[in-house]
Write a structure and sequence with these properties.
With about 240 residues, the chain is an alpha+beta fold. Helix content is about 30%, strand content about 35%. The chain binds uridine-5'-diphosphate. Uridine-5'-diphosphate (UDP) binds near residues 108, 184, 206, 208 and 220.
Amino acid sequence: MGDRNLEAIPERKEQFYEGKAKKLYATSNPDLIIQYFKDDATAFNAKKRGTIEDKGVMNNRMSELFFTMLEQHGVKTHFVRRIDDRQMLCKRLDIVPVETVVRNIVAGSLAKRLGRQEGETLKHPFVEFYYKSDPLDDPLIYPEHAVAFGWATEAELAEIRKMALRVNELLTGFLDKRGVLLVDFKLEFGRHHGEILLGDEICPDTCRFWDKETRQKLDKDRFRRDLGGVEEAYHEMLRRVEG
Ligand code: UDP
């Protein structure tokens, strides 16, 4: 398939998945799917629910900008093109059921688990793996678990780790120029014709962004922790990423 075909928008077919923040649709092209971004927001494994006005629109646009920048620097992603305000055309992935988290600064579950102060800068970034399972609350795993249970091969995990650290380098540099600290973030990967591609979305739902000067939170923690100014934070992040 040539790139020109990839850019054409295939017909939207049946919905085959609905998650907390997105719906996925098949298309007339078996290699491509459509991600539809909702305004629904959940936290603490959906124990807390709400909506963030226009979140879907902002996350779709922000993900487009991040994926485009990453592709320009050689990171292979599932992103094909944005279709409209809430829809993105993507390559179909066989998702690896492991969430990959990269951390630069202590926050969230790391602070809690190891009794560290939120805001402590780590000596170096590192990668963590979590098993994607709602009933189990996405438990932290060793890479060995993923291999032993057949969720990914050792070679795939090595590739995922390498890609995640490269994404961290690129995003950290890009955001630094825009006055934003990248605290931590979650990525998902999948297979497409045997190749590992970065999937899902990159947005304030899946990353912690802090203002570099004030350390003010510009991400979903405003919703999780009832800090107010949720929509404003998403708008501010989009404004900075658009540059
Ligand atoms: N994260 C995510 N989805 C999840 C869990 C975490 O997108 O199901 C993101 C979260 O936004 C943060 C990073 O991954 O940027 C690390 O999250 P952490 O493990 O600290 O968990 P949390 O405190 O969000 O429960």
